[in-house]
Design a protein that fits this description.
Blueprint lengths: L1 H22 L14 H12 L13 H13 L10 H7 L10 H20 L4 H15 L8 H5 L6 H4 L9 H11 L13
Length: 197
């Protein structure tokens, strides 16, 4: 009797796990060695601009592109597999053509990444300082001298200490997320001028 209840419980658990896992999104390898196309050109262009890639921007994912992607992944705390999947594309500031997600998930990804940066770079600082860190990212996104995406600015080589030392991967708290959202919404403590008399 106990054995049959145990077996039925195990079967029920397996069925529940299967149903849960079947609903999870599948991670696709979007661009990898041998791929060709516009997405590969975007990858090559970004990596070339940031000094990871020195080959031609030809849209062919060959050995130079593969090694450049691996170097970028290593430098930015990603799994260095040479495959430009969704995390790597996000870090490069490239929205995949193969992605079925809409703008809201992209915005959530930007908010989460910016929250990670704020926490890694400015935790322990006053709230205005946390917002100011996020505001520097937003200012750079709108400046033509910098990458035109939040992830592109954050992962630009040498831009932020917490990216270089891996503290960006620590997570974030509610204050960091609120500060990131305030900066996305336009609050910029860095633009205020205080005059001393």
């Amino acid at each position: 009797m106990k054995n049959s209840k145990y077996v039925i419980g195990c079967i029920g658990l397996c069925v529940m796990l299967y149903l849960i896992l079947a609903r999870l999104p599948v991670a696709y390898a979007l661009s990898q060695y041998g791929s060709r196309g516009e997405e590969v050109k975007q990858i090559q262009s970004k990596l070339k601009a940031w000094g990871y890639y020195s080959g031609n921007v030809d849209g062919i994912y060959g050995s130079q592109t593969y090694e450049a992607v691996k170097a970028f992944q290593r430098k930015n705390g990603l799994s260095a597999d040479g495959i430009a999947g969704s995390q790597t594309l996000g870090a490069l500031g490239i929205q995949s053509n193969n992605s079925s997600s809409g703008g809201s998930s992209s915005n959530n990804g930007d908010l989460n990444l910016l929250s990670h940066l704020v926490y890694g770079e400015a935790r322990g600082e006053p709230y205005n300082g946390m917002v100011a860190v996020a505001a520097t990212v937003m200012n750079r996104v709108s400046d033509s001298r910098f990458p035109n995406s939040i992830s592109g600015v954050i992962y630009q080589s040498g831009a932020y200490t917490c990216v270089a030392d891996g503290q960006i991967n620590l997570g974030y708290d509610d204050n960091a997320k609120k500060a990131a959202q305030d900066a996305i919404n336009g609050w910029d403590p860095t633009s205020r001028v205080y005059l001393l008399f």
